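[job 0417] fold request received: Putative ABC transport system ATP-binding protein
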Amino acid sequence: MSNPLIKITNIKRDFVLGNEIVYVLKGIDLEINKGEYVALMGPSGSGKSTLMNLLGCLDTPTSGTYILNGKDVSKMKDDELAEIRNKEIGFVFQTFNLLPRTTALDNVALPMIYAGYSKSERSARAAEVLTQVNLEDRMDHQPNQLSGGQRQRVAIARALVNKPSIILADEPTGNLDTKTSDEIMKLFNDIHANGNTVILVTHEEEIAAYAHRIIRLRDGMVESDIKK
Ligand SMILES: Nc1ncnc2c1ncn2[C@@H]1O[C@H](COP(=O)(O)OP(=O)(O)OP(=O)(O)O)[C@@H](O)[C@H]1O
Ligand SMILES: [Mg+2]
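[job 0417] inference complete; emitting C-alpha cells
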C-alpha cells in the first residue's frame, strides 16, 4: 500500500569523542507503515536508543535520509524538528521523566502548551487521556505519590495527549516488575488497537512478543527483521 510512515535510507550516526570517531549506526534501511507494532531488540550498545532518538527527531543522522510522514526530517533545523516532534511523536522512557512536584494532570497537559491550546482545552484533554489509562482517580497526585506503574501510565498519557502518529518507547517496562509490565503492555496493545503506530525497545522476549514485527540490531546494523 501507499507511502510508509517512516522511511530511512542508509542512516549513519557517528559521534566524535576527542580524537576518535565512534561509529554507532552503520547504514540502516527501514520502512515502517502506519499502524505497525514494532519491537526493537539487540545487545546493549548495538544502537537501539541512538536509532530511537533519530526516529523521534531528538537527533539527526550523520548521513542518510529520514522521511517521516512524507517530510524529509534528516536535514531540518532544531526548531523545525521540535515542531514535528511535538505534533507527530509521543515518547515514553524507562525512567518516566515526569516533572516532580507537578500533578499528573499538569504533567500530561504540558506538551499541549507548546501546541498552543488554552488552559481549559489542555485540562479537559489531559483528563480525557488520564481516564483512558485508568488514572481518573489520581489526576491530582504528584509523581512521588504514585507507584512505578502509575507513573508510567502518566508518561504514556503525556505521550498520547497531542494525538501523535507514532508512539516511541525506549524500554518502557525496564523499571517495572513483571505484573506491572504486563499491565503497561496491555495499555500499549490498546494504543495500537486504536490505530497508533508503536515502536518499542526491549531486552525481553516476552515483551517483544506483544509486537507484530521484531527488528534486531547488532553492532549498528539490522541483523534481522521478522514480521509475524
Ligand atoms: N553521544 C554519544 N557520544 C559517543 N558515543 C555514544 C553517544 N551516544 C551513544 N554512544 C555510543 O553508541 C553505542 C550505542 O549506544 P545506544 O545507547 O544506542 O545503545 P543501546 O542499544 O540503546 O544499548 P542499551 O541496551 O544498553 O540501552 C554505545 O557504544 C555508546 O557508547
Ligand atoms: Mg538504550
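[job 0417] notes: The radius of gyration is 17 Å. The beta strands are 6-17, 20-32, 37-41, 63-68, 71-72, 89-93, 166-170, 197-201, 213-218, 221-227.
[job 0417] exit 0
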